[in-house]
């Protein structure tokens, strides 16, 4: 790395200069990411796209968890439609959060990931 040195005017050519070199500490910014637990209900946040403080709009969709629950109930003998009950339980569904101002996707909550985050935080 080149170093710029300013020579005083009273120094003649050929004269030796004593240069005091001290180590310099250089700090680099380290990005820190934190995992947040996304709730299944609408929450207040700042939209990363329009930078407005908004309450999110929520959409729910049956993901992997309710379908696995249906399969498990069908395997133990629930039939006649009883095995489909998990498809209608909101806490088992995947929840997507959108900005109410610009309709930008903000976050997604999956019951599997929420359970994994809860178990890892309780074991720490």
From TrEMBL:
UniProt domain LITAF: residue ranges: 27-111
Organism domain of life: Eukaryota
A GO cellular component entry from the record: nucleus
Topology term for the membrane: Peripheral membrane protein
Subcellular location as annotated: Membrane
Keywords assigned: Membrane, Metal-binding, Transmembrane, Transmembrane helix, Zinc
Pfam families hit by this protein: zf-LITAF-like
TM regions (residue ranges): 64-89
Iron among keywords: no
Gene Ontology molecular function: any one: zinc ion binding
InterPro entries noted in UniProt: LITAF, LITAF_fam
UniProt xrefs under PROSITE patterns: LITAF
Entry similarity comment: Belongs to the CDIP1/LITAF family.
Protein name: LITAF domain-containing protein
Organism: Chrysophaeum taylorii
Source taxonomy: Eukaryota, Sar, Stramenopiles, Ochrophyta, Pelagophyceae
């Amino acid at each position: 790395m080149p170093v710029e040195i300013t020579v005083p005017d009273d120094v003649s050519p050929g004269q030796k200069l004593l240069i005091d070199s001290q180590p310099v500490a250089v700090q680099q910014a380290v990005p820190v990411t934190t995992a947040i637990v996304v709730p299944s209900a609408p929450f207040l946040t700042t939209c990363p796209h329009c930078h407005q403080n908004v309450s999110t709009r929520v959409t729910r969709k049956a993901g992997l968890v309710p379908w696995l629950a249906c399969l498990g109930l069908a395997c133990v003998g629930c039939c006649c439609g009883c095995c489909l009950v998990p498809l209608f339980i909101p806490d088992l569904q995947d929840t997507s959060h959108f900005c109410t101002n610009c309709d930008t996707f903000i976050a997604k909550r999956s019951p599997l990931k929420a359970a994994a985050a809860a178990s890892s935080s309780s074991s720490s």
